[in-house]
Amino acid sequence: MKAVICSKYGPPEVLQLKEVDKPVPKQDEVLIRIHASIVTASDIFIRGSRLPLLFWIPMRLVMGFTRPRKTIPGLVLAGEIISAGTKIQRFKQGDQVFGLTGFTLGAHAEYNCMKETDSMHGCLALKPRNLSYEESAVLAYGGLLAMQFMEKAAIRPGSKVLIYGASGNTGTIAIQLARHMGAEVTAVTSTSNLELVSMLGATSVIDYTRVDRLSQEVKYDFILDAVGKMKTSKLKVNCKKALTPHGRYVSIDDEKLALDSKRLDAISSLAAAGSLKPVIDTCFSLEEIVQAHKYVERGHKIGGVVIKI
Ligand SMILES: NC(=O)c1ccc[n+]([C@@H]2O[C@H](COP(=O)([O-])OP(=O)(O)OC[C@H]3O[C@@H](n4cnc5c(N)ncnc54)[C@H](OP(=O)(O)O)[C@@H]3O)[C@@H](O)[C@H]2O)c1
């Protein structure tokens, strides 16, 4: 099968497309023909391994100290089950699934084997029938992150929510989740993305490249930093002063992403009901993996960057 191989840490050019053996599933695994993946911020960190010392050592211990332990990268997949081992109960041949591969990686390839139970090695669920494989891959990652952190807000109809970094993969889903819960949503992004976040349901928008402070009059019940702690602005620093007395500020870097198939099922149902629609920035082929990494590394993608396989 075709697979991207990352045999050392470094710039996007370390990624090479190669022919490797197709994986053989065990009795407790499914074999998936992958049709779409995405390149995420996490893929960039793992490949580049350019992290502050505090994160560098734990990350290298997990991912491989001198070179990547798992040579096929890729965290997110959407595809079709080709075969299911005798111990598999949740899935059958022909099921269309989406999920994350966790520390096993391996999604930037034509095939991958996964267990059906949630663990640090991934989580898997049936993909929404009304979405393509490409859309489902984007939804799996942004949806899991957005739902995990939005669940921390006791959102009620009329709650005031601010999503900082509203144009990324997590931000675009978080706006829609907050609207679905009945919140009034203020979305913070840059000038070129203001229209997009309004179309996704934001009730008001703020351009972080032009505005440094929030109005004194409006206070928020929940603020989600959807771009993480490494991206900031004067406005983001000032956001924390705009909470109601019981308001809460949460960053998506506050805790580890939970690989949870129940959440994936809930995301799938919301998408099937038309309440969540993932945003695709660009699609690349497996052969264009180096360009895809360079594109994501710039830090300004909207929604997800897809790898069609
Ligand atoms: N907790 C976990 O385990 C976990 C796992 C994975 C990822 N994460 C975190 O999630 C983050 C985001 O991932 P993602 O893929 O959803 O986002 P993303 O798609 O990489 O975010 C890109 C978006 O960020 C916006 N942006 C860039 N700089 C900004 C700034 N200074 N202020 C506001 N917006 C800015 C860009 O909009 P403009 O072009 O308009 O600037 C762009 O649309 C990662 O960077 C990581 O920190 C956490």
- Would you tell me the overall average pLDDT? 96
Sheet with the most strands, sense and barrel status: 7 strands, mixed
SSE-based structural type:
alpha/beta
Poorly predicted regions: none
Which ligands, by name, code or SMILES, are bound? NADP nicotinamide-adenine-dinucleotide phosphate
Report the sheet-strand fraction.
Answer: 25-35%
H-E order: EEEHHEEEEHEHEHEEHEHEHE
- What is the radius of gyration computed over CA atoms, rounded to a whole number of angstroms? 19 Å
Figure out the total of helices: 8
- Report the strand count: 14
Helix content: 25-40%
Broad shape: globular
Description:
The chain has 309 residues and is of the alpha/beta class. It is 27% helix and 28% strand. It contains 8 helices and 14 strands. The chain has helices at 41-48, 53-63, 133-150, 169-180, 194-199, 234-239, 261-272, 289-297, and strands at residues 2-6, 15-19, 29-39, 76-84, 96-100, 111-115, 123-126, 160-164, 184-189, 204-207, 220-225, 243-251, 280-285, 304-308. β11 (220-225), α6 (234-239) and β12 (243-251) form a beta-alpha-beta unit. The model has no long low-confidence stretch (mean pLDDT 96). Bound molecules: NADP nicotinamide-adenine-dinucleotide phosphate (NAP). NADP nicotinamide-adenine-dinucleotide phosphate binds at residues 40-42, 142, 165, 167-170, 189-190, 193, 208, 227-228, 230-233, 252-253, 256-257, 299-302.
